[in-house]
Amino acid sequence: xxxxxxxxxxxxxxxxxxxxxxxxxxxxxxGVDRKLYIDPNECIDCGACEPECPVNAIFPxxxxxxxxxxxxxxxxxxxxxxxxxxxxVDAIKPx
Length: 95
Description:
This protein is of the alpha+beta class. The protein has one domain (3-88): Alpha-Beta Plaits, CATH 3.30.70. It has helices spanning 16-20, 70-78, 82-92, and strands spanning 3-5, 26-27, 37-38, 58-60. The chain has a two-stranded antiparallel sheet with strand order 1-4. The chain has a two-stranded antiparallel sheet with strand order 2-3. Helix 2 packs antiparallel against helix 3 (82-92). The longest helix has 11 residues, at 82-92.
């Protein structure tokens, strides 16, 4: 199981969660990405990030609200195909 960063993070990119992650599994490219991404292969399911998010965008994978379920795949995709993940974010929530 992993954590997922959903739509409330889009265009916010508050990095409070990054500073508390003990395994540095939250990533993004500054000036390019519209949200942060959790690497599902690095996440250790500790939950430290969830309470730090000021916009309540971080959820355990099995608890992502239905309207944001597609962000589970988007987070995983970013680590293999950044362009595809960015296109998905833009399609889900146009700028």
